[in-house]
Amino acid sequence: MSGIHCSMEDLLAIRDGQGSAAARRHLETCAECREEYELLHQRIAALKALPSFSPPRDRWPAVKEALVAERRRRKFLGWFSLAAAASVAIFLALRFAAPATEGEALDQVTLEELVTQSQMLEEALRSFDPTSRVLSGRAAGAIADLEDQIALLDAQLAEAQAGRVDPSIVRELWAERVRLLDALVRVHATRAAYVGL
Amino acid sequence: MLAALDQLAIQRAKTGDLEALEQLYRAYEGLVYTLARRLCRTEEDAEDVLQETFLEVCRSIGRFRGAEQASLTAWIKRVAASKALMRLRSDRYREADSLEDGPELTNPREPDVALQMDLETALARLPERSRIVVWLHDVEGYTHEDIAELMGMTVSFSKSQLARAHARLRRWLRR
């Protein structure tokens, strides 16, 4: 309540079921305030009755175009990762299923060992939760750099295997992958030990 | 008037079906554009809010948990209000708004004869924040707590903006 009559705040609070007891009592007995209260209701009813608008232009084509472009981008990235993984798997399956000479058998073992090592290192990487610990700027930079190099190498590996290149080159790429993964595991292990102290 | 959408159409829209999403757009474009027009300053801004709202709705509807149209309507309106307010929070609007929120009225019940106008004109003449609070509270049914959260201000500020807005409307409309 302010002064003799209900203020606008009082009337709005009463309308929202939150008015003070004094304001409610006054409203019951004051004809002028009741008229104000009625006007408030009428104004709100008039606001609700204002006409709606129609958009001057159809914006759906623009929305659809943006959605389709986003989906295309996501699909491309998804297929690229899948293709890289699939080509590695197909190459390995074909390579080891085919009859081999004595020299090639040695290569196979070496390549197989490299792939196994690579898998073990990736398993080790999964044990480091990237979201659980705070990264220093330097560690974050080193990790990002190594991850970029591995991603680039995976793309080269997928390309090399799809293009039927010399198996020794593929083996070298796998060896490089193992080296990078090993470095990445070391960075994570050092960081985890440091933060855990 | 909001076009009815059945649960199947909502479910299809949730899977990303473009035809169902267009159906959703057609059902809600008027409602979203009207809300945007009431909150934004210009038609162009309202159109942009319409587009931004539906991009967001189409991207996020898969995560929307409700199945009924009423809850879908409330969610879409919330996205639209949030997009419009985001636009209004930009510096150019904040600066302009601070200049137009005039002095307190001495006697709000005294009609301003010189300024008598219709409701549409009076609403447009209100300071930005007052107009938004009036619309969200009195027409859309948002609580002061909702408005405070959406606009990044306090509940008491929302209440005082509403009272000031009604005092002005009362004078300008003579009712």
Element-level helix/strand string of chain A:
HHHHHHH
Q: Structural class, from helix and strand content of chain B?
A: mainly alpha
Specify Rg of chain A, calculated over alpha carbons: 35 Å
Work out the oligomeric state of the chains in this entry.
heterodimer
Distance between the termini of chain A: 62 Å
Largest sheet of chain B, described in full?
A: none
Give the helix proportion of chain A (percent range): over 70%
Helix content of chain B: over 70%
The count of domains of chain B is 2
Helices of chain A, by number, come to 7
Which stretches of chain A are poorly predicted, pLDDT < 50 over at least 5 residues? none
CATH fold-level assignment of the largest domain in chain B: Rna Polymerase Sigma Factor, Chain: A
Average residue-wise pLDDT of chain A:
77
CATH class membership of the largest domain in chain B: Mainly Alpha
Please work out how many helical segments of chain B DSSP would assign.
9
Q: How is this structure best described in words?
A:
- Chain A is an all-alpha fold and 197 residues long.
- Chain A has 2 domains: 8-48, no CATH class; 88-196.
- Helix content of chain A is 78%, strand content 0%.
- In chain A, helix 6 runs antiparallel to helix 7.
- The longest helix of chain A has 38 residues, at 60-97.
- The radius of gyration of chain A is 35 Å and the shape is elongated.
- Chain A starts with 7 loop residues before the first helix and ends with a helix.
- Chain B is mainly α and 175 residues long.
- Chain B folds into 2 domains: 7-88, RNA polymerase sigma factor, region 2, helix turn helix motif (Rna Polymerase Sigma Factor, Chain: A), CATH 1.10.1740; 108-173, Arc Repressor Mutant, subunit A.
- Chain B has 9 helices and no strands.
- Chain B has helices at residues 7-14, 18-39, 43-60, 69-88, 91-100, 119-125, 128-139, 144-151, 155-173.
- The mean pLDDT of chain B is 85.
- The interface between A and B is large, with 31 and 41 residues.
